[in-house]
Amino acid sequence: MARTGAADAIDFLAARVGGPLGAAARFRTDQREEDVFACLIGDYDPMHNEPGWTFEGGWDNTIMLGFHVLSFLHRFLAGAGVPVEPAPGQSFATLGLGRVRFVSSLPVGTEAEWSIELTSVEPVGDAHLLRTEHRVQLPGAERPMMVAQHLGAIFGGRPHLDGLLAEPGRPAIAEIPAGTPIPESKEHGESFYRGVLARSGEWLGATPWTVIDKRSADVFRLLSGEPGPIHSNPAWDRAHSPWGGTVVHPFHLLSLRSFFLPQVGLPVLTDDWMAAFNYGLDGVRWYASVPTEKRVRDHVQLLEAREKEPGRYLVKTRHLVEVEGEPLVALTADTLSLFALKSRSGGTTG
Q1: pLDDT tens across 285-311, in order?
Q2: Which candidate, 257, 76, 253, places its Cα nearest to that of 150?
């Protein structure tokens, strides 16, 4: 039987299980790229987009959005030999993320390095599951900026996201509780977050519908360094894309958590009372590709909220993303946000 590109890639990867996948790769992101990314996901915040921003506890000048760093994952998988870019006889899909933590900040414009460890390559159905662990840090530093567990799949034909894992059933939209948003407040201080703590476990409702158009999807792919052709011709995508058309990058859909949270009452932008940080993820699962121009919305549950230390509140939310007209969710994600209150002296608690 003739070998395919996917088969050759799987042989290459299988010989490297349990060790590093390629050499650590360097990258650097400038302020203009950070500004555009922040606009795409609704998180245009002084800490990311106003050079000269400061924060008690050691931050100086702008720092990168955690989701911006995470969006580079496909780029570095491709550089390490994973067939991320579709080609005859091969395709690739991201299925999920395990534990992700943004351990420390990465200043905009600072060179960092990305390393990958290959955990396993496992045949399942018409695919091979690929589990990798990713680490981002400043060169020579002991403490990472980001650690992330990723689950992808390599196919010999067209990719798909559902039916490959032994897991609970894909959530149905009709079974999601309604919920009530957190009341809008002009002050996000201690009183506001005491109210948030009291809502632990409750559903916060569904956001308004929104659309990711092709232009926005293309810009996200350019910023992430996604392998493969990027253009403005939907007809080309219908003819050549393994998905049968133009689809939203999986990390773009995930990054909209920053856009959705304020719509159910949880602020994400630094203000006179607090600064909000993306703390990490406790699990993400993509079940279906999402075409551009389709309306999507988020159903949000406040899983847990606690005061991690004085003046700092750790909030865990669950996100079930719906595509209009589809009976089952396209994405589930458990995300963590850290809200740091500003100190009485006018700075921010560190």
Answers
A1: 999 999 999 999 999 999 999 999 999
A2: 76
Contact by Cβ (8 Å): 277, 269:
no
Q: What is the rounded CA–CA span in Å between residue 136 and residue 22? A: 14
* CATH T-level fold of 1-159: Thiol Ester Dehydrase; Chain A (3.10.129)
Query: In the structure encoding, which two tokens stand for residue 213, read together?
Result: 């158009």
- In terms of C-beta density within 10 A (0-12 exposed, 13-18 middle, 19 or more buried), how is residue 184 classed? exposed
pLDDT tens sequence across 254-284: 999 999 999 999 999 988 899 999 999 999 9
* CATH dotted code for 170-212+248-350: 3.10.129.10
Q: Where are the domains of the chain?
A: 1-159, 170-212+248-350
Residue 217 CA, chain-centre distance (Å), reads: 14
The reply to whether 170-212+248-350 shares the fold of 1-159 is yes
CA 126/CA 135 separation, integer angstroms: 29
**Helix, strand or coil, per DSSP, at residue 7:** helix
